[in-house]
Design a protein that fits this description.
9 helices, two-stranded antiparallel ribbon, alpha/beta, 8-stranded mixed beta sheet
Length: about 240
């Protein structure tokens, strides 16, 4: 069992045992929802990086639902990835000027119903990326649920010039998900610049080591075959 896997299990167990976890249950095996997700989203909207952002990419999981709704209500263009990047047009654009039911459009199912599919080359330059996490450190090391799609989405957009050094990375989590562990990282791991909980906003101490593009060596043939836009571009 890897150190990251042990950490995930510990955090999932703690969220469940403490009563902090919220629907969907159990928190295990997913980006866990938590009590205070609305408050964390509200705190994020008070930051300068949020207020400056015109385009936001957010994950489709339950704890970031209030973030997605806040983005559209603020008139920001919202992007989410197609699950597992399974389509050639592997991102979904939600245009606040064309959506009349923000609550419906920002649910997991609603994103696919209301979102316009676009390829990575047609994504607007992204100002702010909001990621879900299982655990995160104040150094900006993020632990997701273990499938690697969040980092891969970043790398793909970077390869197409849709994210760059000016794109800000943020995660919204419960305080219990902020850990002191030494988290092993690889070249393709995307560090978080800010960690926002219901109680505080942390400016992380991450070094300037954002991935520069797709780490082809980290992708096996099966993963490439499952993601058409990568399979077509692979060396």
């Amino acid at each position: 069992m890897t150190d990251k896997h042990r950490l995930r299990e510990r955090v999932w167990d703690d969220l469940e045992d403490s009563g902090v976890a919220r629907f969907p249950f159990p928190p295990h095996g997913r980006i866990p929802n938590y009590a205070g997700a609305d408050e964390a989203a509200a705190r994020l909207t008070e930051t300068d990086v949020w207020q400056r952002a015109e385009t936001v990419k957010a994950n489709p999981d339950a704890p970031q639902l209030p973030v997605r709704r806040a983005a559209l209500r603020a008139g920001k263009t919202l992007y989410a990835a197609v699950p597992r990047l399974r389509d050639e047009e592997c991102f979904l654009r939600l245009d606040p000027t064309t959506i009349d039911d923000i609550d419906a459009a920002t649910t997991v199912s609603g994103i696919e119903e209301y979102g316009d599919p676009v390829g990575p080359g047609d994504v607007d330059p992204i100002d702010l990326i909001v990621s879900g996490s299982v655990a995160v450190t104040d150094r900006g090391e993020r632990v997701g649920k273990g499938e690697g799609y969040s980092d891969l989405e970043f790398a793909l957009l970077r390869a197409f010039g849709r994210v760059d050094d000016d794109t800000t990375t943020v995660t919204t989590v419960h305080e219990r998900q902020v850990v002191d562990d030494a988290v092993p990282t690889a070249a393709h791991d995307v560090p978080m610049e800010y960690v926002v909980t219901p109680d505080r906003t942390i400016t992380t101490t991450h070094e300037d080591d954002t991935p520069s593009g797709i780490d082809w060596d980290a992708l096996d043939e099966q993963r490439l075959a499952e993601i058409p836009v990568l399979d077509r571009r692979s060396p």
